[in-house]
Amino acid sequence: MNTTEAVVRAAYRAAEGNVLDVQGFKDLFAEDGVFNNVVAGESYRGEHLGDLVVFMGQLAPDIHRNLHRFHVMGNLVAVELTIEGTFAGPFQTPAGTIQPTGAKLSIPTADFWYIEDGKIKEFNCYVGVSVMLAQLGIQPDFAGAVAASTAAVS
């Protein structure tokens, strides 16, 4: 296993529910490294690099990443995976807190890791949010969206 692959596998291991080594995860990043939660349009740097690891660990304490395809191409690692676990922690939303239901999660995800000098320079995570929300029992409010768009046009 080369250094690039070892760094990425260490990051996945640190984020597992039975390990949850947030500091160890953050330590794998370069000083100017960034973690992009692309679908949500969020970026994390510095002390916040582990924020999503903490969030997912609270949402599903038994969180596990099932790595389906793992490709190392120079300093780039592309991974197709599912994030699995049990919805056992509260989920904060803009409308309030959704209490845990025990629902099983299996969220399709694609990750792209860029490694420089043995450290993570950039991590772009594409989580299947619509699948995750459905598994959490959160359905879109299409009627509310239609009403809002009709009001906006009037």
**Quaternary organization:** single chain
Question: Strand-residue fraction?
Answer: 35-45%
Task: State mean pLDDT (0 to 100 scale).
Answer: 95
Tally the beta strands: 8
What's the total helix number?
Answer: 5
Largest sheet: 6 strands, mixed
The low-pLDDT segments are: none
Overall outline = globular
Please give the order of strands in the largest beta sheet: 2-1-8-7-4-3
Helix/strand-derived category reads alpha+beta
Q: What helical percentage do the residues reach?
A: 25-40%
SSE order, as H and E?
HHEEHEEEEEEHH
How far apart are the termini? 61 Å
Using only C-alpha atoms, the radius of gyration works out to 17 Å
Q: Would you give an account of this structure?
A:
- This protein has 154 residues and is of the alpha+beta class.
- 31% of the residues lie in helices and 40% in strands.
- It is built from 5 helices and 8 strands, in the order ααββαββββββαα.
- It has helices at 3-14, 22-27, 51-59, 129-136, 142-153, and strands at residues 29-37, 42-45, 64-73, 76-86, 91-93, 96-98, 104-116, 119-127.
- It has a 6-stranded mixed sheet with strand order 2-1-8-7-4-3.
- A hairpin with a 2-residue loop joins strand 7 and strand 8.
- It is globular and about 55 Å long.
- It starts with a helix and ends with a helix.
